[in-house]
Amino acid sequence: MEKSQYLEGVEKKDLFAHGHRACGGCGQALAARLVADAAGENTIACVATGCLEVFSSPYPDPSWRIPFLHSLFENAAAVASGVEAAYKALGKGPVNIIAQGGDGSTADIGFQSISGMFERGHNVLYVCYDNEAYMNTGVQRSSFTPLGARTTTTPTGNKTRKKNMPMIAADHGIPYVATATIDDFRDLQQKIKKALAIEGPKYIHILAPCPLGWGHHGELTVEVCRLAKDTGLFPIYEIVDGKVTNARKIPVKVPVEEYLKVQGRFKHLFKRGVPTEEVAEIQEIANQNIERFNL
Amino acid sequence: MLKQIEGSYAVAQVVAHCRPNVISAYPITPQTHIVEGLADLVGEGQLQAEFVNVESEFSAASVVLGASAAGARAYTATTSQGLLLMSEVIYCIAGMRLPIVLTCANRAISAPLSIWNDQQDSMAVRDAGWIQLHAEDNQEASDLHIQAFKIAEQTFLPTMVCMDGFILTHAFEPVDIPEQKEVDDFLPAFKPRHIVDPRWPRGIGLFADPRFYMETRYILHRALEKSEETIKEVSAEFARVFGRDSGGFIKTYKLEEADVAIVSMGSVVGTIKELIDQLEEEGKKVGLLQICSYRPFPRKEVYRALKDKMNIVVLEKCISLGRGGILASDIRWSFPRAEKRDRNISSFVAGLGGRNISIDDLRYMVEKVEKEPVEFEFLGLKKELIAERDM
Lengths: 295, 391
Known about the structure:
The complex is a heterodimer of chains A (295) and B (391).
Chain A: H1 3-6, H2 27-39, E1 43-47, H3 51-56, E2 68-70, H4 76-90, E3 96-102, H5 103-108, H6 111-120, E4 125-130, H7 165-170, E5 176-181, H8 185-197, E6 202-207, H9 211-214, H10 221-231, E7 238-240, E8 243-245, H11 256-261, E9 270-271, E10 274-275, H12 277-293
Parallel strand pairs in A: 1-2, 1-3, 3-4, 4-6, 5-6
Antiparallel strand pairs in A: 5-7, 7-8, 9-10
Helix pairs in contact in A: 2-8, 4-6
Chain B: E1 2-6, H1 7-17, E2 22-25, H2 34-43, E3 50-53, H3 57-69, E4 74-78, H4 80-95, E5 101-106, H5 120-124, E6 131-134, H6 138-155, E7 159-164, E8 172-176, H7 180-186, E9 203-204, H8 213-242, E10 250-253, E11 260-264, H9 268-281, E12 286-291, E13 293-295, H10 299-306, E14 311-316, H11 326-333, H12 337-340, E15 344-349, H13 359-371, E16 377-378
Parallel strand pairs in B: 2-3, 2-4, 4-5, 5-7, 6-7, 11-12, 11-14, 14-15, 15-16
Antiparallel strand pairs in B: 1-8, 6-13, 10-12
Helix pairs in contact in B: 1-2, 1-6, 3-4, 6-8
């Protein structure tokens, strides 16, 4: 694909400015920029403690050109609820309020406050940047860490499957849930815009590879996302009013080995190049996704 | 107008008259009727506010944090475990200089589980950077809320109004609840300093590396010290406008002539005053120093009030386990080193977990310190329940 064609229709406003301190090839930095630029100037970002917060908001030079509010690790959704309540009470707005956090603050420590925000029906979009472990603090396991992945707290490989947050979000009865990755700018930005046009709580789950924690080369970040999609390990879909729609068909299905082999965190799953039993189990997860979403 | 009303509902009505824009609270661990009262007032349309029913105290504090950062006057109430669950956010609110008002209905901390009164909960967050004001009775508790919003919004320091759980929150007393117009005249609309607003994009809650962090603590500390002036001004103005003394820094009762000075805070000062009157009839001179503002701590006032007193006894409903009285150490610190010598400052802990503090307990305490100073003692302890092997 030609570069110009690929970027056609992609919003670029630099509302999340360059000069931040993310690592080279950081999936989250790219995702945060796409989200901010899709949402536009009339947006408030409520960000949880984590990589994004640390690399984008050191005093005195934050990277945000939209209002940015950070307080703690586990309360971005509750803080965003408070901002929304204030706007309502003061008769201000309309304004886009986007709570954002990594997988740790979404799946683990902040899970309760997100559930509360969904259940209460606040007009807030929650965006999860999923890099499948606590990367900011040195690659520790989160409940989004996939089966088999090696982290510093699962040195022999993670023994459990990933928590299915999009489905949990949808089961709150919220009007819009979507998954996206950073390899498809247009799709990601369209989903952000679509979500922001809907009244009520929304959830978008973005796969954001971390070269440091995943052990892949920085220039492969986008490619790793493509592989995650094309293996079926990270299905792309929307859930509108409880119904799964727009599941992205995989043009050519790729065996999970292709995805696992480019990442150091899965290296132990191959003995002298031969896949172990766990690879078959991971392939089974991909197959289940392919069947479930008719990819 | 005087109303016979439960303490919690009196506070709810007064807070409503302060016109908070956003109220968020969690109803348990444990709660009082304050938020129920406010929910009713919002539900009936008497108060135009967003009432956010959250899933925990942690989120209640986070919601008011977000609301305040967006420019709203925000209020929450909690107690005991709830305040401890909030504690991470409590520090954050102060660090971000958000002028939130919180009612702490003082109650004991688990374990063992107790829902009754003491002051361990607010003590647990005394160093967080909040102003902490302690009420003696329900009139003062109500009045302090009107003052708290004004103090908080002038100083950009969050303010906690502490009132003894059950003893005040669940007690029916006549309370004069000012009219809406009187409160409006006293308490101007909130003018926030920094808010999240797309018209003026700015970052709130940036992280500070070692080049910057310590100055934020220094500034917060100095701001708390400086809030002394505001607390005094606002309570003086309140007295002028409403015709009664509520709040302020310290209060005294028959202290000037006293041979023994009792120092305490909260509702127990009522019982102490009763004892002082009884002892006066018996020819004994005992006086009271009541701490109204625990943070900032009124060190200079304490010194001025007590500098001629050689026999001082501090009574408090909280303890620093492994150390002793908390307020007692604040009082001891209030004297210059040279003046500590020959001065007896006794320390008593009482009323933990709702144990009643009777006038006889207090009489025993005074009689004991008249004989000799007491380094540290639990007042009203049941020795028959204590076995040596448990310690």
